[in-house]
Amino acid sequence: MIVDLVLVNAKAYYNKQIVDCALAIENGEIFKIGKETQMPSADERIDLKNLLLLPGLIDAHVHLRDEGKAYKEDFYTGTAAAAAGGVTTVLDMPNNDPVTMSATSLRNRMHLAEKKALVNIGFYSEFPNSLEQIEAIAAQGAVAFKLFMAAQIGSLNLKDDKSLVEAFRKVAKTGLPIAVHAEDQASINLNVQALKLAKRDDLKAFLQAHSEQAELKAIERGLKIAEDAEARLHVCHVTTKNGLDTITEAKRSGQKVTCEVTPHHLLLSQTDFERTGAMLTVMPPLRNSHNIEALQEGVSNGNVDIVTSDHAPHTIDEKSARSIWEVKVGFPGLETTLPLLLTMVRAHRLSLDTLVRLVAEKPAEIFNLKDRGRLGRGWKADILVVDFKHKFKIQASDFHSKAKFSPFDGWEVQGRPVKTFVNGKLVMDEQKIVARPGSGSIIGSQHA
Ligand SMILES: [Zn+2]
Q1: Is the pLDDT of residue 365 over 80?
Q2: Alpha carbon of 357 to those of 15, 97, 360, 368, 374: distances in Å?
Q3: How many whole angstroms from 312 Cα to the centroid of ligand 1?
């Protein structure tokens, strides 16, 4: 037989080892991994010159914007940024314009994305106006539901635990997880009110408003609600030691809960925020070294399940608003996550095993993407080629994202994504997009 593509002279991460091998791809899937001499004939052959082959990244926390917020990012630019960063699947958050919170808004988003996407996209939904719609949203192919506990985005009454339990129970029946942005809205509102009365408008005021206690309170509450509803909970971007310890304890007692951290919460501190300014404004905010150390330990020991970018593009104007209370939160991350993590591997602060688990294997597990996140026969050919020796400076002005700024701009890193294959197709080559819009697939959860 003649397969579509054979990659030769690869050093692939396969069965938890790095093996010299070749890899055959047929019909978007990995057909064979083995010696070059065992490979079938192929329409195309690519010599990887001993570069490292990893499963493509699955970034489970991405804001692709588009529709009403396309001026910040659209499906094409966002997925181009993903491909450039070695990310082959992104999961899109629902706080869009319109908010993704019905089968119709989800379907419209899928149709628009289908034409523009360069990598695979799955979609979160917020909670709909009527809980009766939860089933239809799941049937339409949402990968998870999202609850912003810090601000009113979906239709749930954030003050009413009973109705939250009821909503979570409905989602539990669909088999999908519920991801929460865990910051307590009531605490934040009280803090902001007091700070504004005191005419505070500085960076420290933002940190005080988004206190560590606000995170802990929301995590404890989210865990309790999920437990009562027998729902599977995923806590987004944990930033505090207390928060992580609380989640770890719940896991030990048998609760179905997972959590993520972002590279910025791992590598940047509130001191960086106060020194650099409003561009580093993010929710939850950057924390002190005590918390950062706990997150880093959690990443190494497995208490942290996954790493996500929380890619949150904005315009420069939105990041430089006059009042800290008006500054949009977040920054782009799709093009920096992998080089930052590979640099940690280089510095022996992370093993390659752990990296692959955090950004490919485990996110696939949590979000029921059953045939992605690993290199192996029969798995989707979502493949990333890395030049582990390549040292370079992160240059935000070169980003494929519309948001050409980054807290990591100018950082010296080592390990560059040089090729990205999505469903067996070369999408990014040497940081250039080489595929047509629409090459990525729209994917749904594959829960039983
Ligand atoms: Zn986010």
Answers
A1: yes
A2: 12, 33, 6, 15, 9
A3: 6
Q: What are phi and psi of 123, to 5 degrees?
A: -125, 135
Above 90 in pLDDT, residue 447? no
**d(C-alpha 180, C-alpha 250), whole Å:** 16
Output the CA 180–ligand 1 centroid distance in Å. 10
What size, in residues, is the chain?
Answer: 448
> Distance of alpha carbon 285 from its chain centroid, rounded?
17
What does the block give as tokens for 16? Answer: 């938890």
Cα dist. 168→95, 172, 176, 185, 445 in Å?
19, 6, 10, 19, 17
The three-state secondary structure class of 162 is helix
CA of 396 to the centre of ligand 1 (A): 20
Q: Determine the pLDDT at residue 444.
A: 83
DSSP 170-238: HHHHHT--EEEE---HHHHHHHHHHHHHTT--SHHHHHHHT-HHHHHHHHHHHHHHHHHHT--EEE-S-
Both tokens assigned to 372: 């992605």
Distance CA 397, CA 393 (A): 11
Ligand 1: distance of its center to the CA of 235 in Å? 11
| Rounded CA separation 288/192 (Å) | 21
Q: Is 409 a catalytic residue?
A: no
Among 59, 184, 305, 310, the active-site one is 310
DSSP 329: P
pLDDT score recorded for residue 302: 96
- The overall average pLDDT reported for the chain is 96
Residues of the chain by 3-state class (helix, strand, coil), percent to 5? 35, 25, 40
Amino acid symbol at 194: A
Residues 6+ apart with CB under 8 A from 163: 156, 157
So what's the pLDDT on residue 417?
A: 98
C-alpha separations of 361 from 224, 246, 269, 276, 445 in Å: 27, 24, 28, 35, 15
* Mean pLDDT on 406-420: 98
% pLDDT > 90, the chain: 96
What stretch of H or E contains 245? helix 241-252
Which own/partner pairs from 99-103 qualify as long-range (CB within 8 Å, at least 24 positions apart)? Answer: 99/126, 99/153, 99/154, 100/124, 100/125, 100/126, 101/125, 101/126, 101/127, 101/128, 101/129, 101/137, 101/154, 101/155, 102/128, 102/129, 102/133, 102/136, 102/137, 103/133, 103/136, 103/137, 103/139, 103/140
User: What is the per-residue pLDDT across 196-240, written as a single tens digit (0 to 9) for each?
Assistant: 999 999 999 999 999 999 999 999 999 999 999 999 999 999 999
Binning pLDDT at 50, 70 and 90, where does residue 448 land?
very low
